Amino acid sequence: MSYLFINRYTRQLPGEKSGDAAVFDRRPRQVFQAAWSAAQPTPVSDPVMLAWNGPLADQLGVNAFAENAQMLADLFSGNTLLPEMQPYAACYGGHQFGHWAGQLGDGRVINLGEVRANDGAGWTWQLKGAGPTPYSRHADGRAVLRSSVREFLCSEAMHHLGVPTTRALSLVLTGDKVVRDMFYDGNPQAEPGAIVCRAAPGFIRFGHFELPASRGDISLLRQLVQFAIRSEWPDLAGDLDDCQSEAAETKVYLQWYQRVCDLTLQTLVHWMRVGFVHGVLNTDNMSASGLTIDYGPYGWIDDYNPGWTPNTTDAEQQRYCFGKQPAIVRWNLYQLANALYPLIGDAVALQQIVDKLPGAYEQQYQQMMAQKLGLLPGQLRSSPLLQLLENVLLAQETDMTLFFRGLGDFALPGDSRALHECVASAFYSGSVAPENIPLYQQLEAEYRALISSPDDDASMKQRRNQMNSVNPRYVLRNYLAQKAIDALTQGDASVFDALWQVLQSPYDEHPGSASRFGGLRPDWARTRAGCSMLSCSS
């Protein structure tokens, strides 16, 4: 299989070197004038494959190993390396919770290399939890089972929801214990260790560009930007090759930055569509490929609350709560523009792109909400419907996912139920509060006026089909992930397997799984560890 590896990152970007050789040294240190450092996974004692993503493996052309379970476990735990793998840890910086953090880097990720997939695209493999690197900052570089299960399931749940994301190829139990203080309260526990293999066309983060810019290393900054362009944008790469002047290069860089902005906003709109909260939107957790990356203390909105954050570290500030994600993403894109300025040198052009971000997001958001409501985008421009919708969702504890799924049943042929009756399954109290019925009547009157059509039967059924294609029936609620983790810890993979199966087709009904995976968050999950808010160690 070694012929698959193309390893453009290590071949085209400067690595940390001593003389003519790449340095392999796990010592924590500052790394300068380099995009990566050589790394080696630390062996584990007894790797066992818990989950293998066969469809993704087919796409990547690596299913030849699937018949040998032990070979799979050895390879994707890092115990075995193929000859043409070039393991490395990437060097980058970032803003964390609004403050510049300096050098960060891959502290518990080791990139095995880049493969050429069946369709010709390049995909990088990463082992998350494979041991320390120069960027581990005295940590052990390991991951526990609970965080690895959450990473695996969320990567695949997001993909099947249609949200741009990194993927998960495998989940391996290491046979070793890893000590973690889950809530940073002085009560560390030894937990089962595990490793996820993540795969994506690219793992370049905003922080890749921020670090050399902060150090005045324009040469490395230029190399990174050109690599990002050449690896993912063939048309811009051709333009770059044709450049005869700095002005021409600057134009290409600005076009690339615009595309990064466009992709990032598209992903953000998907988060808002499905009710996803990332939890740690630091600039080092933002992908230059527009992917959702780094699944830690994430969560899905259960009861609709724009101020909800799943991250215990963010509980007071709520910087990364659901409703602030649009503003934070724009802030992060602004920080990327600041990092690119020393290379581009045109503050006006960069500012023009940044200034258009709020309007571009609002336009995409309106289009998305029109889809969720089964309407045409233009119908919302002069309608109070979105404000009325916000009013009813905030009036009482209402599940966002179940509300929008139930809304598709409103005004169907032969169904005379009021709107609040169609969404009754979304109310945590079991029914609409009497004082909120007037709010629902206002919403119903406005909504009914917008969806009316001369061809009622056909249009109403078409509306429901459109709505059901963007409003999921199932999402990865934190308590569902925790139930899978609890069962796996006891050696029972059945809950994990069943949940993973449902998450691969989240817009379908799955009648046998509705009560198990598609209901309201139970009361016991409101305060139980791992089922609502989580720490960054999650």
Please provide a written account of the structure.
This protein has 538 residues and is an alpha+beta fold. The chain is 41% helix and 13% strand. It has 19 helices and 13 strands. It has a 5-stranded antiparallel beta sheet with strand order 4-10-11-9-8. Strands 1-2 form a two-stranded antiparallel ribbon. It has a two-stranded antiparallel ribbon with strand order 3-5. A hairpin with a 5-residue loop joins strand 8 and strand 9. Helix 6 crosses helix 7 and helix 9 runs antiparallel to helix 10. The radius of gyration is 24 Å and the shape is globular. The model has no long low-confidence stretch (mean pLDDT 94).
Structure in a nutshell:
The chain has 19 helices and 13 strands.
Q: In DSSP terms, counting alpha (H) and pi (I) runs of 4 or more, how many helices? A: 19
Backbone structural class: alpha+beta
Q: How much of the polypeptide forms β-strand, as a percent range?
A: 5-15%
Spans of at least 5 consecutive residues whose pLDDT stays below 50 are: none
Mean pLDDT: 94
Rounded to an integer in angstroms, the radius of gyration calculated over CA atoms is 24 Å
Question: What spatial form do the alpha-carbon principal axes imply?
Answer: globular
Helical coverage, percent range? 40-55%
- Widest β-sheet, arrangement of strands: 4-10-11-9-8
Largest sheet: 5 strands, antiparallel
**Overall strand count:** 13
Keywords:
single chain; 538 residues; alpha+beta; 19 helices; globular
Blueprint (SSEs and pairs):
Blueprint: H1 8-12, E1 17-18, E2 21-22, E3 36-38, E4 48-52, H2 54-60, H3 69-75, E5 88-90, E6 93-96, E7 99-103, E8 109-116, E9 122-128, H4 145-161, E10 167-180, E11 189-200, H5 206-215, H6 218-232, H7 234-242, H8 246-274, E12 276-277, E13 299-300, H9 325-344, H10 347-355, H11 357-373, H12 385-395, H13 400-407, H14 419-422, H15 437-451, H16 456-468, H17 478-489, H18 494-503, H19 514-517
Antiparallel strand pairs: 1-2, 3-5, 4-10, 6-7, 8-9, 9-11, 10-11, 12-13
Helix pairs in contact: 4-17, 5-6, 5-9, 6-7, 8-9, 8-11, 9-10, 12-15, 17-18
